[in-house]
């Protein structure tokens, strides 16, 4: 179901969905009230939901949609403004699973083509994803639900000096959960996060994490020191790497070409971290589509770092973590509710 107050945008998105093949547009709606009524009748698998609409906007409609069709996967679409980024993140906290940056108009050709590519990629990833399993908190187990091919042995070394997190689809809520479970150990280690997000969204996400965790958290800037107790989020549209300056690690941003169609890319961060920090890194690869992070994980494992991947049952899309697991690069494959506790044990030196 496509929900947008612009007839032009509704028609454009519906046409692209049909042209992608394998999908059917069961209905369209011009406002949230109409969307709820249609959702009850048509039971769409995926809802593309605009934020700014008359009568009932996307934020107000979302809980009603999920009540009407709990199994629907809602992707929020919005233009790139700070307010829309804030509302989109709010929608994620209410149950939407992803977001898309909408072109200002159908005439913005480059932006429209990027939106089309991202839309089709997300639809295909979500249509093949297995239903998630919601677990009660359980004791940590290092055994994944499925065999890990040639999984590396757990490195034995000093406590980690840097925590890296890579995520994409479903990532904001997963990152929140991991960091909340890590407190108060977060005050003892720097945290670097690459979450696939458009520009402006990453700054709002960093502000949200700072409010949630009551710790310094901001969008990374070139030359930022990497210091314990600070959380840095990669800027949307720029790679976040690491360099050693005067013997101290600092952030290096770049406008290099996308890797795995991503900028920022997890691979860039992982690769640089392996070179600068070596074995004193622990990395978590969380829910997300694609394979970003796998190539960088190879560098980390070779350097002696530790990698934890989210399991398939609790991932929105088991693309990124699944790729790391299938490549035999994960030391542990854990449900989301166990990852923070496992990381805390490694960081504080209290792991089994």
UniProtKB/TrEMBL annotation:
It comes from the Bacteria. The keyword Phosphoprotein applies. The modification 4-aspartylphosphate is found at residue 50. Phosphorylated by CheA. Phosphorylation of the N-terminal regulatory domain activates the methylesterase activity. Its EC number is 3.1.1.61, 3.5.1.44. This is Protein-glutamate methylesterase/protein-glutamine glutaminase. The gene is cheB. The keyword Ribosomal protein does not apply. InterPro entries: CheB-like, CheB_C, CheY-like_superfamily, Sig_transdc_resp-reg_Me-estase, Sig_transdc_resp-reg_receiver.
